[in-house]
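Exam prep: given the inputs below (a chain plus NA7), describe the expected output before reading on.
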Amino acid sequence: MNQNQTTNSGSAPTQKLDVIIIGAGLGGMYQLFRVRELGMSVRVIEAGSDVGGTWYWNRYPGARFDSESYSYGYSFSKELLQEWEWTEHFAPQPETLRYAGFVADKFKLRQDILFNRKLVSAEWNETTRDWHLTLDTGERMVAQFLITAIGPLSVPTLPNIPGVKDYTGIACHTANWPHEPVSFAGKRVAVLGTGATGIQTIQEVAKTVGHLTVFQRTANWSAPLHNGLITDEQQRTIKASYADIFKRCHENVSGFLHNPDPRRGVDVSEQERKELWEKLYKERGFSVSVGNFCDLLTSPQTNAWMSEFIADKIRQRVKDPVTAERLIPKSHGFGTRRLPLESGYFEAYNQPNVELVDLRETPIERITATGIKTTERDFEFDMIIYATGFDALTGAYDQIDFRGIKGQSLKDQWAAGAKTFHGFQNAGFPNLLMILGPMGALGNIPRSLEYNVEWVSQLLAYMKTKKLSRVEASAESVEGWMDVVKAASVGLLANDVDSWMTGVNKNVEGKSVRVLARYAGTGPEFRARCDAVAAGGYAELDLT
Ligand code: NA7
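Solution:
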């Protein structure tokens, strides 16, 4: 590609593209593939030096899928499904990054991707009906359609603890992990954060570390992942069953391979509950949450029983009873936050060189030049790992200055809570289309993003055929969808819990109170509503 044709850092007008996609993660890569099929001119802007998105950045020790590998890969190419072989039931990050590279090579995607560039601002011009982009390199680009595939969990946040910048040892957020191997042997290492990322990191670092200190503010429920190598025979079965695998994901509430038990926990005997839970505890992946009683996330009683069942498992696995009690969540019920899955996490605390600091008992006062000072002790470390999460859902949008009709700012418009039409569009921002945008369906992410890309591509194809150049969700359509989002959240125990799923990240200004932050309905319901919009000729959208 001749880059000078599509980007410009001077004052001369640049060539207008049909489509610019932001992000070359799994969403952006697939969107590029589909847009090319439509015969439209397209470029992708990517901040990293290669494809992969989440799997490019999150190289921390122990990073891997919690979805079965064969339910996570792309489903759109039968050839790709037969060519690629996952080696583990839950692939580790390096394998997934190789997969992203394999896909990019197979479909020759890199030739249309501009790496090492960040989008700084995007301004809509109502007269010329196009988006004017400025990149951090100073380059400028113009496109009729702007598609964001910037991820719901892509902006890492450091803790708002005094002194973070004072530390002189090695410090790293899990989502900005170095590309070079990191050794923990003989080192005094701290991990801050015990979410899904912290738990994967802790159990892996514990295997080789000199001494590990875990700083836990909130204990999280966690259950065994049960990973393992995929045998040759399993590989053959998987390859022969892909149609069935994706059909099952498609019909599932959240795109996984585990179906909820249709019974309510409150309707069955204690023995029946225990039987199901003992079985689920031995099963792979999210079976323990998605395959649970259908009232697990709505009935306080069923949830309390399940929480106690898991608490007992923690007590059985952690030798020191005081540490075990600290690891048992008290502030929320099982499954009401995104459930981390683990492989020997609790046993790590049985090692003499692994220590747990409960920040509810002894809060951190500050990060010092040499370590971490709590109200009780001064710790010295060679390395601090921040597994402190993300400015989720809207964070990636807040980083870019999007200006819609009459210069209105997307960040300002979303300051009181994000609103979209099915996560795809927002009123006042014509021709801006979002992949996995706020208030869309998440679940098993690739299953959702493939659908998102296909819906957006279908809309582009429709507009091309009908010679339409501008699409905007009306304010009424956005409000209509927000009513659906509200209704889907009613009665969920998760509503009363602080987490990124309720929009809380106390390290980010303005995000310390719970809001309606996501669509919590099922995947099939979401798709049925989106399909109906397309089938109805996009009546909810203003098309001109
Ligand atoms: P999470 O789930 O948001 O977890 C972040 C963790 O960091 C959590 O334990 C937080 O404690 C802790 N944290 C954050 N800020 C602080 C401060 N200031 N002090 C102490 N502890 C802090 O992020 P993950 O990366 O684990 O997972 C995000 C998603 O990525 C996950 O759902 C997967 O889908 C992949 P808290 O619970 O807030 O008290």
